[in-house]
């Protein structure tokens, strides 16, 4: 179970050059209590330097400057975290939709879409965003803690994660049980965790290699 708390985002970034579509989606978002930040091209969005405030992105496939796929690819390269994305298009085709999904787009809606379908996907994206931010925050904290471990502490941690006892580790590393216990305490302190079980669960959740 993750202990990282994150704020629920209620702001959506809409990147589309069709002003009528933007007005309609913005009104729809307001009706369900969400805020919208509208960008009419990809570069303006990428320059906003404000991705952390968005819980979801809605991106049109065809934009005046970049394609929607290029916008998302650049966003992932430019920022440490990119919110879940819904792609919309009036020119959808199966290969493009497949490519979008492979690039992490959670859904691809063809214009004209049913408003409720978009609302459903936005709500799903906001849930994903909260989960993703929690993992992202936890991974950053664990990375910081793990970077502080000495080579010997990493050896001890690997053995502990393999469910070996202090006595077994002591024998294999030719260290006293007291030294192993000291290393164990240092590991938990540096990683800011209360128990080995909690640390192991967090490492597994973040898919980290030790």
UniProtKB/TrEMBL annotation:
<dbReference type="GO" id="GO:0003677">
    <property type="term" value="F:DNA binding"/>
</dbReference>
<dbReference type="InterPro" id="IPR036388">
    <property type="entry name" value="WH-like_DNA-bd_sf"/>
</dbReference>
<feature type="modified residue" description="4-aspartylphosphate">
    <location>
        <position position="60"/>
    </location>
</feature>
<dbReference type="Pfam" id="PF00072">
    <property type="entry name" value="Response_reg"/>
</dbReference>
<keyword id="KW-0597">Phosphoprotein</keyword>
<protein>
    <submittedName>
        <fullName>Response regulator protein TodT</fullName>
    </submittedName>
</protein>
<keyword id="KW-0805">Transcription regulation</keyword>
<dbReference type="Pfam" id="PF00196">
    <property type="entry name" value="GerE"/>
</dbReference>
<feature type="domain" description="HTH luxR-type">
    <location>
        <begin position="142"/>
        <end position="207"/>
    </location>
</feature>
<keyword id="KW-0238">DNA-binding</keyword>
<dbReference type="GO" id="GO:0006355">
    <property type="term" value="P:regulation of DNA-templated transcription"/>
</dbReference>
<dbReference type="InterPro" id="IPR001789">
    <property type="entry name" value="Sig_transdc_resp-reg_receiver"/>
</dbReference>
<dbReference type="GO" id="GO:0000160">
    <property type="term" value="P:phosphorelay signal transduction system"/>
</dbReference>
<dbReference type="InterPro" id="IPR000792">
    <property type="entry name" value="Tscrpt_reg_LuxR_C"/>
</dbReference>
<dbReference type="InterPro" id="IPR016032">
    <property type="entry name" value="Sig_transdc_resp-reg_C-effctor"/>
</dbReference>
<feature type="domain" description="Response regulatory">
    <location>
        <begin position="11"/>
        <end position="126"/>
    </location>
</feature>
<dbReference type="InterPro" id="IPR011006">
    <property type="entry name" value="CheY-like_superfamily"/>
</dbReference>
<keyword id="KW-0804">Transcription</keyword>
